């Protein structure tokens, strides 16, 4: 996708260095980060310099390729794999990537590198197909609500929930997007709003708790979100707050779509209860950071000092609340995940 007229991917390899857009600095400044080792790339996944299901999957693939050149033997590779898999537990793409690159690395470091690059390519291609295949669900003047960021920044390119919007716009439709802020880290306010602005898609930021009112007022035609993991029964783990939107959409009879590549499917996970939920630092709730009007960066308290906080990063939306799951292979009912996985 373009940033100020120049084509970018979210992350890529230069030799054995991983280069990524620093998503902790966006949208206030556009900076690239270069990670030279597997350990550095793991830290970037953990601190969310790179994020989103596809983004962490590709970063994990690159980290494993770096490890293949650093570590010797199956034991060293297994240690590296454990390090990568310990970064973020919910996104299935991460585990999909480590398994594939680990197998390749057992053959040779060159094979590991080729496999990691293949995963990055596939990630972008699957996102593009999702955008195309979703068009039958997107009316000409669609008013869409989305949560968190499942745009191109959450993958190597195009995105999942936002790919249908970008494609609709390219086809001459007029989509409008309501963007949930997505507390506590503000992926909607910071990343989705920035992405849509860069691409010239009309949108409005809303507080997380405003969505149900807009639905009740008839202002939302459909909801599209991404996914971090889809269980075999069609239950969907996604950014905390997704479940509330799905419940409200069901009540008001609004279609609730999940856009995700099949690399997000976990057929070994029978249902949502088996999906591991990441809990992050309470500081994400208690403090907020950003620049003031002069560009000076500050971190400020937003809760009473001494308040304990609980910060689950994801929730699980039961399959019964999901209208359809849009994959690169087609549009499936949540009960059809076995077909999507074939
Ligand atoms: O914690 P993040 O920002 O990595 O979480 C990402 C999400 O949960 C997004 O909502 C997205 O839908 C999944 S990534 C496409």
The CATH superfamily of the largest domain is known as Translation initiation factor eif-2b, domain 2
Class of the largest domain, according to the CATH hierarchy? Alpha Beta
CATH topology of the largest domain: Rossmann fold
Number of strands: 18
**pLDDT averaged over residues:** 97
Query: What string, H for helix and E for strand, traces the elements in order?
Result: EEEEEHHHHHEHEHEHEEEHEEHEEEEEH
Each distinct ligand: 5-S-methyl-1-O-phosphono-5-thio-D-ribulose
Q: Percent range for helical residues?
A: 25-40%
Broad structural category: alpha/beta
Domains (count): 3
- Name the overall outline: globular
CATH level-two architecture of the largest domain: 3-Layer(aba) Sandwich
Oligomerization category of the chains in this entry: single chain
Largest sheet: 7 strands, mixed
Q: How much of the residues is beta strand, in percent?
A: 15-25%
Rg (CA only)? 19 Å
Total helical elements: 11
Unreliable spans are none
Describe what you observe in this structure:
This protein has a seven-stranded mixed β-sheet with strand order 8-7-6-9-12-17-18. The protein has a four-stranded mixed β-sheet with strand order 13-10-11-16, with helices on one face. A three-stranded antiparallel β-sheet has the order 3-4-5. The chain is built from eleven helices and 18 strands. It has helices spanning 38-46, 53-70, 73-85, 92-107, 109-133, 163-170, 187-199, 211-216, 242-252, 283-286, 337-341; strands spanning 2-3, 6-7, 11-14, 17-21, 32-35, 143-146, 176-180, 203-206, 222-225, 229-231, 236-239, 256-259, 265-266, 287-291, 297-301, 314-317, 324-327, 330-332. The chain is of the alpha/beta class. The mean pLDDT is 97. The protein has three domains: 2-128, Four Helix Bundle (Hemerythrin (Met), subunit A) (Up-down Bundle), CATH 1.20.120.420; 133-273 and 316-340, Translation initiation factor eif-2b, domain 2 (Rossmann fold); 279-312, no CATH class. Helix 1 packs antiparallel against helix 2, helix 2 runs parallel beside helix 4 and helix 2 (53-70) runs antiparallel to helix 5 (109-133). Bound molecules: 5-S-methyl-1-O-phosphono-5-thio-D-ribulose. Residues 51-53, 148-150, 154, 160, 187, 225-228, 238-239, 313 line the site of 5-S-methyl-1-O-phosphono-5-thio-D-ribulose.
